[in-house]
Specification:
Elements: H1 4-10, H2 13-32, H3 34-49, H4 51-66, H5 71-87, H6 96-107, H7 118-124, H8 131-155
Helix pairs in contact: 2-5, 3-4, 3-5, 4-6, 4-8, 5-6, 6-8
Length: 162
């Protein structure tokens, strides 16, 4: 068991600072218009790729962003972009719930960098890992997870989707 003092000494302030800073970066991406520009690019991809690869692209886009900012900030940004796509009729072949599922799963798949998720950052220094270690394992893991997620989401029966 830890005492309260030991618990407070064990807090890694660098981790807390990274988490807090990611929300500021998320707000900057939104205010700069970058998220709107990325949404327009995504809308152009759906007819070119088709529904299944588009779900994979949403997953990978969200996962890549989640590797740079916290998954909560990532969802705030990407949700607004994807919601506007469906409200504007930008996507015809998919239901909104399918695209949102791909976004949610992608936001939780920040395997490729140590800064994307708090626990990744917590084990970075104590485990002696480097950014390259996370990328070496995280990129193939993210790609295989994207493939499985996109296929699963696309295959969901309509009765399971709102």
């Amino acid at each position: 068991c830890l005492t309260v003092e030991q618990a407070f000494r064990a807090i890694q302030h660098r981790v807390l600072l990274t988490i807090a800073a990611s929300f500021g970066l998320g707000a900057a991406l939104d205010r700069s218009g970058l998220s709107a520009m990325l949404g327009a690019l995504l809308a152009e991809l759906e007819p070119l790729l088709g529904p299944l690869p588009f779900l994979g692209a949403v997953f990978l886009f969200t996962s890549a962003l989640s590797c740079l900012v916290s998954n909560a900030a990532c969802v705030v940004l990407v949700y607004g972009v994807l919601k506007d796509l469906h409200d504007g009729g930008g996507l015809a072949a998919l239901r909104p719930a399918q695209v949102m599922l791909a976004m949610m799963m992608g936001a939780s798949a920040s395997f490729a960098t140590p800064i994307g998720y708090q626990t990744n950052l917590m084990v970075l220094q104590p485990g002696g890992y480097s950014f390259a270690d996370f990328a070496r394992l995280g990129v193939p893991l993210t790609l295989s997870t994207a493939l499985c997620a996109a296929a699963s989401i696309y295959s969901l029966p309509p009765s399971w989707l709102p």
